[in-house]
Amino acid sequence: MRHSRAPVRSAISVRGVPPPLIGRDDELRTLVDVVTHPPATVLIEGEAGIGKTRLVQEMLRRADPGQRWSAIAHCRPLGESSSYGPLAEMFAAHSESVLARLATGPRLSPAVGALGRLLPELSAALPEPPPMLGEPKAERHRTLRALRELLGALVPAVLVFEDVHWADHGTRELLRLLIQRPADGLAVAATYRPEDSDGLALNLARRHSGTATSAALTLGPLDRAQVGELARALLGVRTVSADFAAALHRRTAGIPFVVEETARTVSAEQGPAGAEAGLLRELPVPVVLSQAMSERMATLPATAVRAVEALAVLGTAAGHQLLSEVSGLSEEQTNTALLEALARGMLVEPEPNRYDFRHVLARQSVYDRLPGPRRRELHACSASALGRAASPDLVQVAEHHRRADAVGEWLATACQAAVQARDRGDPWLAADLYRRLLSGPAADGFRAGEIAVLLAKTAVEFIDSDDAITLLGDVLGDERLDRAARGTVRLHRGVLLRRKSGCVAQGRDELEIAVRELRDTEPAAAFHAMAVLAEAQYGDLPLAEHRTWIDRVDEQLPTISDSTLKTTVLANQLHTMVQIGDPAGRERTGALPERLPTADGRRQLTRGLLNLADACAWTGHYRQAGRHLRAGLARIERGDGTPFLLCVARSTEVHLDLLTGRWAGLADRAAQLLERYGDVPSVRAELSLVRGSLAVAEGNWSQARRWLREPARPDFANSCVPMSLAGSAALIRARLLCGQPRSAAQEIGKALASTRRKGVWSWAADLVPVAVGHYCRSGRREDAALLTAEFERGIDGLDTPLAATGLQVCQALLADCAGDAVLAAEGFARASARYAGLPAPYHAALAAEQAARCALRGGGSSGAAEMAAVAEQFQALGAAHDAERCAAALGASRQRRSGRPAYGTRLSPREREVAGLAAQGKTNRQIAELLFLSPRTVEHHVAKAMRKCGAGSRRDLRGPSGTPGAE
Q1: Can you state the angle between helices 841-858 and 880-897, rounded to 10 degrees?
Q2: Which string of DSSP letters, residue by residue, matches 212-245?
Q3: In this structure, are strands 40-45 and 213-218 parallel, antiparallel, or unpaired?
Q4: Where is this region: Disordered (predicted)?
Q5: Cα–Cα distance between 458 and 493 in angstroms, integer?
């Protein structure tokens, strides 16, 4: 049911500051000003007939038309035949001007060649089409980037999206991209109806980049005086009476288009003398435009009426053949009917051999006057005609079935359309169809539950966003769902919430309710929910509580005969067991079947392999992780996957490459995947961890802090714990390396508290060695020993080689702290060898560096050679900062072995270097970072330099060349 809306006053909002609005002059000035200062975006809101189209047309006329390329992309009702339909139609209509611009514009990248299939009229100017990516989401992402680049090649330009409330998902995605990442020189305006926009304004506004000129216009009805002014201009008279203006305002509600049509009707029938209030009462009430259209329709021959009515029902521009089929007219009759309708101004020809109404309200007026039986008949004919196409648009076909009250056909076709949308990689369209089915006449009783479950499964398999969670939340409020359907929807919503940062606890609550709702009605689905609750990686719930669910699942697993369900549960169960280091986990990996009969089962098997790859990566079984990952990717290439599984696989692949030292081009790969999959929180966190870890190795502290902010979440209760602990360990190391021990200590405290609460010490394989090292350097040997012992107890008996090797590092650190350099060096060397065997070359190099430092301090002859070898290892990996640190330690060692010369009152080379930096205003900590020294050593050098130079303060040190006593 459509509710009445309160009248909306006109308003302008520029960069969030809405100024007062008087008439349309202010909107026009604002609009022209914004679009002539690109990059720019304007959102224009208003109900049907409020004047949005006329406003943008006037704007295009005034916005330097001789210099700027401009066009309007029209979105159509009843959906589009394909994604980006309005763009394809717009480029086809403007192909000549576009080709002329491209001929003198910048060279297009090869990616733009992907538009050749979408824009055949421009294919001659586009690069050769690149190979298909074989991944719907990647193809869509490439198409979006290509469209943005193509529009950027036409600048300076103004592009208007008309009626985006009807836009297909692809067109909306492009609009969001242009708002979020505006192209230089391009101004974008979008018009929409608030009553049909489904939160569009808020969704687009939050995408705004903050770097482009922007405005939001809300067009409200005209007031009485403005209606009078418009009527005066339309009627061609010098003035109209106040009574006429008031009556016209009442009859039209101040909607400009209705005022215009009414005034023109008055003018046509009565001339300027008709501008009298009394004559308005003779016009039909309440919709003047409908009356005008009815009168025009009455003048048409019967065949023309049938053609016009058929076009009104089709809901989009149509050609001669389609109109003939829907109207039931012969080809000759259709031709004559179109000539009559065009001559009488009922229809226009927007492009060769395609016909449409001049305005949407004109179409609606004709549609509304149709008697119910005739309207249903024409919708049935439209569904039949459109369904016979070579590649029918099932969305439109389904909608016509719905409006024809063909409930069975509507249900069947809409479900087919949803499957078609999924196969084409358009999950949003599939989900929207299921949503429409739930709100339509076909979704009663059992059907509502069935459709709700299909919607939930679509959301989990293909969609990972706030909108999907909200959508399933709305579905849960549907009173028609029985307990089983509601529990299944809740199960999938819980899975989505657990993937979303900050909603882990909420997702767990949903899953626990789902178990209670499903255990009596759908025990298989309840079993699935229990398996998800058994997963320990999300949230800070103690492992013991997850163990309860793990045991319950293990008890029931042998009783499950459904191979797909069994594989679904095993994918979760094995992931958890391997990830926490349970020795039985890897032993049971053979329980996953090699093949399954159903498509869903095969997807679950793919998920199981990818879960094992992820779990093995966190525990140090890197070679097995690689085997599972390759097997999973091979299955995805064969079609046994989903876009979500592919993005997870690519993210795991990059993470595994970080751990195993395959760093060549890794930062660029991670950046590309972040751009493609940045809307998936878990994947975004993992890729950010990779980029942050590489930044630490490079010594780029600002970038390290930026990228580690996402994985090193302070709220462990609502995050992926192994990811958060790994991010925290990398962040702590970065802070220690750049001389921030206090903030590092705070991070250590938070991360260790989370580890203790969770009780999974295998995930602290990187954290604990960093913490123990910090405690040792800070004089907290007892704390270091206690933490090492706690770590040893926590991983005792677990199958976690990464943590076991980390324990060896901790024990070597304790030996070094106790002054036993020989024992420490031996321990670090053993740890380095074990790391290398995983293989974890970066960890191996860090441990080898510690061993070399012990050898250097012990005065052994091998220390220098070992340190030089480690520096080469770091350099080969791309860890520039670590290599420089080793080189600095090696240089200092060589200086000590050759004997320190006596400089007397003169400054030594190191003292001159430190004095120069101090004179520049750098702090001891900054100097220590630059010279790879400890802050205490820098303090010593500064004090000696000041004493030798007789300096009263650091500012009195004049630098190396001018320092008193310098050679």
Answers
A1: 10
A2: SEEEEEE-----HHHHHHHHHHHHT-S---HHHH
A3: parallel
A4: 947-967
A5: 11
pLDDT for res 475: 81
**828-849: burial string, b at 16+ Cβ within 10 Å, e else:** bbbbbebbbebebbbbbbbbbb
Question: What is the SS3 assignment for 162?
Answer: strand
The SS3 of residue 190 is strand
Q: What kind and span of H or E run contains 332?
A: helix 331-343
Architecture of domain 909-949: Orthogonal Bundle (1.10)
| CATH of the domain spanning 285-370 | 1.10.10.10
SS3 107: coil
pLDDT tier at 13, thresholds 50, 70, 90: very low
Task: Tell me which CATH code domain 677-896 carries.
Answer: 1.25.40.10
303-348 pLDDT, tens digit per residue, is 999 999 999 899 888 888 899 999 999 999 999 999 988 887 778 8
Percentages helix, strand, coil for the chain (3-state, rounded to 5) are: 65, 5, 30
Examine domains 285-370 and 909-949 and report if their fold is the same: yes
pLDDT digits (tens, 9 = 90+) for 373-396: 998 999 999 989 988 888 888 888
Instruction: Determine whether 237 is exposed, middle or buried from the number of CB atoms within 10 Å of its CB (0-12, 13-18, 19+).
Output: middle
Only one residue has tokens 């290398």, namely 836
Integer Cα distance of 261 and 263 in angstroms: 5
Strand partners, 213: 40
The Cα 480–Cα 531 span in angstroms is 28
CA–CA distance from 688 to each of 163, 221, 663, 760 (Å)? 38, 49, 15, 23
pTM listed for this prediction:
0.61
Backbone angles phi, psi at 906, to 5 degrees: -85, 155
Q: Write out the CATH class of domain 25-218.
A: alpha beta
Q: What is the bridge-based pairing of β-strands 213-218 and 11-13?
A: antiparallel
- Rounded Cα distance, 202 and 835, in Å: 51
Q: Distance between CA 112 and CA 133 in Å, rounded?
A: 14
3-state SS string for 515-563: HHHHCCCCHHHHHHHHHHHHCCCECCCCHHHHHHHHHHHHHHHHHCCCH
* Domain regions of the chain by residue span: 25-218, 222-283, 285-370, 545-662, 677-896, 909-949
Give the residue among 613, 598, 537 at the shortest CA–CA distance from 568: 598
